[in-house]
Amino acid sequence: MAKKRPQTRATRPQLTDGEIPVVGAREPCPCGSGRRYKACHGRAAAHAVTELVHRPFEGLPGECDWVALRELVPAATVELPLKDGLPADVPSVTLATVLPMAWPALRRDDGSVLLGLQNDTASGDISRDLADTLQRALTAQPGTPVQARRAPADGPRLQDLLDAEGTFEPVVHSGFEFWIPDTENATPEVTASLERANAAAIPTVKLAGVDAAYWCETPEKNHLRWVMPHPEEQLLDALARLHAASRSSLGEGTRLVGSFRAHGLTVPVWDLPSGVGADDVEKPAAEFAERLAAALSSDAPLTPEERRARGGLTNRQVTLS
Asked: Closest Cα partner for 115 from 66, 163, 72, 152?
């Protein structure tokens, strides 16, 4: 009789953490540990995907405008320069506040790319989600939208893909006609989406004299919402100094009513009379910027009146993200 060969257990290849593929949560982990993926390497991957990045646009040109377009502005576009230049078959990459049908991105028939900013994202890092969508849009078939998905936890962020030396110059639109270069050939679904979006859009204007300040018109009153890059505590102290000294308004009938946080930045908000338009607040906003710069430079302790003013401002503060 032939000898039986000794039975040996096949050894699994040893994989490094960077080589572990993503599998189903209840499947065995590919690392060979014998545990389910969700209890092994999937735990770290899930944490990386869900961990909230408080300032996702930090380090990008125009961080304050990124925040404004994400949270405040209904219809706007910005041309995005890529760090390594555009692919030969992609004439342009344009960031848009919203796309038809809430698509994350769209590769147009001519090969150009539209990237939507105000979509829901699957992870806690908007920058990584947008970078993943952008990369897929660059290689999508012309004439097709890009669908949402969970971005890989180790994927690039916008800061890795966009030109850090480029400019970020939003163009605010009164409606969403930029969606459709050829309205005659638009599908009924896209046309209906355009009509709904235009009906809901709040008239908005970007001020020319200061950075990241946006006027908007509502039925009862107008507002100025100004995204500022300064550290929150320092900015609130400066606003309190001006508010206590009755120097925080933008002219007669206007008043600083509070602020909100968005993506790690603070956004002061002013109420304006309904007759005050964007042009009317250009000069007052520039003058306020000078007063604010002086107040930001002060390190003196707040007076009792300034502390009360600060308390009133923080009591009306809301966090959007």
From this structure: 66
Tell me how far the alpha carbon of residue 69 is from its chain's centroid: 7
Q: Roughly what angle, to the nearest 10 degrees, separates helices 232-244 and 282-296? A: 110
The pTM for the full model equals: 0.83
Residue 140 has pLDDT above 60, yes or no: yes
Backbone angles phi, psi at 125, to 5 degrees: -125, 100
- Give me the residues paired with residue 78 across strands: 95
Q: End-to-end CA distance of the chain: give it in Å, rounded.
A: 75
High-pLDDT (> 90) share of the chain, %: 72
Distances 59 to 66, 126, 157, 256 between C-alpha atoms, Å: 11, 14, 11, 29
Judge whether residue 47 has pLDDT over 90.
no
What number of H helices and E strands is found in the chain?
Answer: 8, 12
pLDDT score of 180: 85
> Are 101 and 193 within 8 A, CB to CB?
yes
* Beta partners for residue 270, in sequence order: 224, 256
> Cα–Cα distance between 271 and 220 in angstroms, integer?
10
CA 32 distance to own-chain centroid: 39
Q: Report which of residues 188 and 58 the model is more confident about.
A: 58
Cβ(258)–Cβ(317) under 8 Å?
yes
Contact 271, 255 (CB under 8 A): yes
What's the full length of the chain, in residues? Answer: 321
Q: Do 126 and 151 contact (CB within 8 A), yes or no?
A: no
Nearest 5°: the CA angle 141, 145, 149 is 105
